[in-house]
């Protein structure tokens, strides 16, 4: 992937008569208080560096020197650990841990100590064992392993193809502002991406690319993340339980409908409760449910309080559909089976033939 790097220049600050290098304070001549930028002779810089190396602060000097033009690796380190290593408040295994550096994390090195390194990774700043980090030239060599490369769609709709070029077959389509993982290097202006379970290619003319790194997190961030994950899991569990309950209710309700439909064509009788010799609307519903061991009130005016309410959009087979002075059993597909009237007897009609007062689920 093409990248833009900013070249870093070697800068050694001269303040109040001292050159500040981690682990060392060396006297030099202070700059005059003029508008011109302070000038340090090259020989002076060389002597400073030589003396610093002799005083065993080479590692700290390396934080501020860029041995190559790859300025982005200045101060950069990567984790070399299992799942995680603790970021501690002090360079001591017994100090409190304030964060975690994960196995895929990048960090900024702030200071090298004896066996410990002070880092900043994300919002977490503290100390980790030096052995848990990859630094220097080794960090530069393995940096790509830690990169997160993504593309963001800039077209309204973009084809994902099974190869490079517009002649390749279309596997799926993605839309503007959607972001996807980039799975490899671009080829002839085409970028390999992963869209769900699909691996394909998109034209580089219609995406922007970004390289980022993963970082550690503070103890507070971890607690917040775990709480959010737990909440999502509970929501998913509740949704799954509701779906299971709905499926069970639908199966039980379908059994009610299958039983009720056996009596289609039988007579309507005002005040009747016989499924064979005649029933009115509420008598029909009451008798059907009695077969399944469920006791319902005798009249529609009392049935409106049976079970619990659901919306018509949520109605399942077996639900009671109540009108002003009438009731039927929802069959699904917008129909009810009911004891209609003396002319039509027990039959099927549209569930919306009249205004619906309530939908009740009794299973």
Radius of gyration: 37 Å
Helix content: 10-25%
Could you please say which CATH topology of the largest domain applies here? endopeptidase fold (from Nostoc punctiforme)
The top-level CATH class of the largest domain is: Alpha Beta
Number of strands: 26
Quickly count the helices.
6
Termini Cα gap: 60 Å
* Number of individual domains: 4
Strand residues, percent: 25-35%
Mean pLDDT: 83
How are strands sequenced across the largest beta sheet?
21-26-22-23-24-25
Shape: elongated
Shape-level CATH architecture of the largest domain: Alpha-Beta Complex
CATH superfamily of the largest domain: endopeptidase domain like (from Nostoc punctiforme)
Detailed description of the structure:
The chain is α+β, with helices and mostly antiparallel strands and 363 residues long. It is 23% helix and 34% strand. The protein is built from 6 helices and 26 strands. The strands form 7 sheets. The chain has a 6-stranded antiparallel sheet. A 5-stranded antiparallel sheet has the order 9-8-7-4-10. The two termini are 60 Å apart. The model is unreliable at 1-71 (pLDDT under 50).
């Amino acid at each position: 992937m093409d990248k833009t790097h900013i070249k870093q220049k070697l800068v050694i600050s001269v303040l109040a008569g001292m050159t500040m290098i981690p682990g060392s304070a060396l006297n030099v001549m202070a700059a005059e208080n003029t508008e011109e930028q302070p000038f340090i002779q090259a020989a002076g810089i060389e002597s400073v560096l030589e003396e610093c190396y002799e005083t065993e602060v080479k590692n700290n000097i390396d934080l501020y020197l860029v041995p190559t033009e790859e300025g982005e690796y200045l101060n950069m380190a990567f984790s070399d650990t299992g799942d995680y290593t603790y970021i501690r408040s002090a360079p001591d295994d017994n100090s409190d841990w304030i964060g975690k550096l994960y196995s895929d994390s990048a960090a900024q090195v702030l200071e090298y100590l004896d066996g410990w390194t002070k880092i900043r990774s994300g919002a977490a700043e503290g100390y980790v064992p030096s052995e848990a980090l990859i630094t220097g030239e080794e960090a530069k060599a393995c940096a790509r392993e830690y990169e997160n490369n993504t593309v963001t769609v800039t077209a309204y709709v973009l084809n994902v193809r099974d190869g490079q070029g517009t002649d390749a077959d279309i596997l799926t389509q993605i839309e503007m502002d959607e972001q996807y993982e980039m799975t490899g290097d671009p080829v002839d202006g085409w970028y390999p991406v992963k869209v769900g379970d699909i691996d394909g290619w998109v034209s580089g003319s219609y995406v922007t690319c970004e390289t980022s790194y993963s970082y550690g997190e503070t103890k507070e961030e971890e607690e917040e993340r775990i709480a959010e994950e737990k909440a999502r899991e509970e929501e998913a569990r509740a949704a799954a339980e509701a779906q299971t309950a709905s499926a069970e209710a639908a199966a039980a309700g379908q059994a009610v409908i299958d039983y009720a439909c056996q009596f289609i064509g039988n007579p309507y009788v005002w005040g009747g409760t016989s499924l064979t010799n005649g029933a009115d609307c509420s008598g029909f519903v009451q008798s059907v449910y009695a077969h399944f061991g469920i006791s319902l009130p005798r009249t529609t005016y009392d049935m409106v309080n049976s079970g619990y309410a659901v919306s018509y959009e949520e109605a399942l087979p077996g639900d009671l559909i109540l009108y002003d002075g009438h009731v039927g059993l929802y069959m699904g597909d917008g129909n009810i089976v009911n004891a209609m009237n003396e002319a039509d007897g027990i039959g099927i009609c549209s569930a919306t033939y009249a205004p619906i007062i309530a939908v009740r689920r009794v299973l």
